[in-house]
Structure formats: C-alpha cells, structure tokens
Amino acid sequence: MKRLTEERTKLVLEKLTKYIGTNVKLLIDRPDGVYCFRERKNRVYYVSEKILNLASMVNPDRLASVGTCFGKFTKTGKFRLHITALHHLAPYAQHKIWVKPSAEQQFLYGHHVSKAGLSRITENTSQYQGVVVFSARDIPLGFGVSAKSTADCKYADPMTTVCFHQADIGEYIRSEDSLI
C-alpha cells in the first residue's frame, strides 16, 4: 500500500469535501487514533495507522485489502466514491435528503429521487451539492448530487428530479464483484 501523491490526495479530499465539507478533518484526526488514505491498484483505502503498521508485516501479494475502500481512480484520473464509504460519510454529512418509504426501493434500484419521493431536505442545500440520502427512519441509503436547491424543491413539479443518484446500498448486491 503506497501513499497517495499530492495530486491524488487533492482529488480525494475535494470529492470528500463535496459531501462532508470541513468535516474531512474529523476523518483523519479521530479520538481513537490517526487515520490515513492509502492506495493500492488505483483504489483508495481509509485505514488506521495502527492497522497499517500491522499490515506491513504481511506479504503484499497475499494482502487483499486493508481498511475501508473509499473509492477508485478511473482511467481518466478522476476519483469516484464507492458505496463502501457511506458508513464514514453519513455521520459527517452537512447536506442530507430523506426519502419517503415508497421511494426507498426505487432509489435502491439505482434511480434518481423525484420530488414526489422527497420527504425532507436540509435547509440551504444548493444545486449540485453532494448529499447523503437517508430513509425516513434515518438509515443512510446512499449518496448523490442535489439537482435542485432547497428553495427550488418547494415549488417543483412532483415528477421533477431533485437528487441525482450516485451510489446506494443496493450496489452491495448488484456489484458485489467489483466493490473490493
């Protein structure tokens, strides 16, 4: 596992800032220890330094992964978040969308959230802002990008898309082979 280059670190932190804002600092300097980002085969892992030191004793050929896979770099050099990062993004999310129970299944199948399926949205959410999508019972379902601002959502047509789908927990079943 190698350290991220300065350029790649910037890409990862920019993507995380889109979803959790200044709370990115809380991901790295945690009360239970120091965490860091490491790269292996174009995938970025979020791992404790204690675990990283223990993993350094294992033969790299026999090591599948260490920590949580946050995403991967595409062939064009962009960083794409995976659903496996949701557990770490949800507590720190600054902008959230809650969907109605009738719209949960549609979102989990990979569809965008329409105004008819929107239950609540965080105040002052701007257009094209990264959001974490929750169920009505505050269970994180995935994340996306807001298609409308909070003010625009109030007066939008019921069939208007208010959140573009990025990733959801249904991917654990649909894409289980490619999530490692």
Automatic annotation (TrEMBL):
Where does the protein end up? Nucleus, Nucleolus
The record, for InterPro entries, names: NIP7_N, Nip7_N_euk, PUA, PUA-like_sf, PUA_sf, Ribosomal_synth_fac_NIP7, UPF0113_PUA
One of its GO biological process terms is:
ribosome assembly
The UniProt entry, under PROSITE patterns, shows: PUA (PS50890)
Lineage, top-rank taxon, reads Eukaryota
A GO CC term attached to the entry: nucleolus
Instruction: Check the record and name the Gene3D superfamilies matching this protein.
Output: 3.10.450.220, PUA domain (2.30.130.10)
**Signal sequence extent:** none
Q: Which GO terms describe its molecular function?
A: RNA binding
User: SMART domains per the record?
Assistant: PUA
Write out the entry's keywords from A to Z.
Answer: Nucleus, Ribosome biogenesis, RNA-binding
Keyword Ubl conjugation among record annotations: no
The record's PANTHER family line, in alphabetical order, gives: CYCLIN-DEPENDENT KINASES REGULATORY SUBUNIT/60S RIBOSOME SUBUNIT BIOGENESIS PROTEIN NIP7
Give the protein family: Belongs to the NIP7 family.
Q: How does the record describe its quaternary structure?
A: Interacts with pre-ribosome complex.
What the protein does comes down to: Required for proper 34S pre-rRNA processing and 60S ribosome subunit assembly.
Q: What is this protein called?
A: 60S ribosome subunit biogenesis protein NIP7 homolog
Q: What species is given as this protein's source? A: Ceratina calcarata
